[in-house]
UniProtKB/TrEMBL annotation:
Protein name: Cysteine synthase A
Annotated keywords: Pyridoxal phosphate, Transferase
PROSITE patterns: CYS_SYNTHASE (PS00901)
GO MF annotation, one: cysteine synthase activity
Enzyme class: transferase
EC code: 2.5.1.47
Coiled coil: none
Highest taxon above the source species: Bacteria
Species annotation: Novosphingobium kalidii
Required cofactor names: pyridoxal 5'-phosphate
Classification via Pfam families: PALP
Residues covered by the Tryptophan synthase beta chain-like PALP domain: 17-309
Amino acid sequence: MTAPPTTAPDARTSTLDLIGNTPLVLLKGPSEAAGCEIWGKCEFANPGASVKDRAALWILRDAEAKGLLQPGGTIVEGTAGNTGIGMALVANARGYRTIIVMPETQSREKMDTLRALGAELVLVPAAPFSNPAHFVHTSRRLAEETEGAIWANQFDNIANRKAHIESTAPEIWQQMEGRIDGFTCAAGTGGTIAGVGMGLKAFDENITIALTDPHGAALYNYYANGELKAEGSSVAEGIGQGRITANLDGAPIDTQFRISDEDGLHWVGRLLSEEGLCLGLSSGINVAGAVALGRQLGAGSRVATILCDTGFRYLSSLYNPGWLEAKGLPVFPWLSR
Ligand code: PMP
């Protein structure tokens, strides 16, 4: 057998370099539904299986560069789970301890994963942001009380969106060979939509940046008419913001869509059964938003979105008939067989 050429090696010299450079894939069903090309950025292919590995790495490197983190120090973070998983991995790789504060309503898989990775897990009841017991405020207090600790503060630390300005946006631009008409995704911290939006606009200001908002979040109304007002609710984890975080401040949002859990689940089900992609609900909501944006931009347009995390993280919820029925959501037909 002839040896393959050695010109394009993909060996990386540090496990931290495994973060980013994720593949981009053309999504068949969504492209057909939109009448144009819909591409998905496979963020589930990061080592922590979500888009948040990038934010975790950039926040850690920023803290190190500012001299805030000493060897053997501690990183404390409040998170819906995925940032905690990314943070625990990068912290292990750099020799830090991780303390993660998480609402007890998040998926069982995320809690088990965090414990398995060695993070110290603090569960708090779900509470509104105005309540001092909210996971974000609890994590800040814990960081203040812990010797040698920093607070990662993903919502208002703009090292988060910088990850997407400096990595996700240029990757998408290169992978689409500079031919991209629109980008959309939902916001948790807002780091992804703001960072990718800013990064892409710097390459071509004509690219339409659209926010895809789940029900129960306040950003759709904010970008549509300036009013931070939430309506309805969603079971999607990791997205749904009620305020303008520092990461969202100045995000170049041209237009916005509001997407229901049912519409998001429709795409989660179809992408799994027709294209072999097992995703979480925020990815389905993003794809529904991308289809809406594609229809608006018209035939021949090229739209990209984010496939945020793996569905394996939601086996006890999204892929569990009992859970879906209890939430009044449709059950994927193959689950009732
Ligand atoms: N989807 C999932 C599953 C997430 O965990 C997050 C992060 N909270 C997001 C989407 C949104 O990403 P961002 O924080 O960059 O807005």
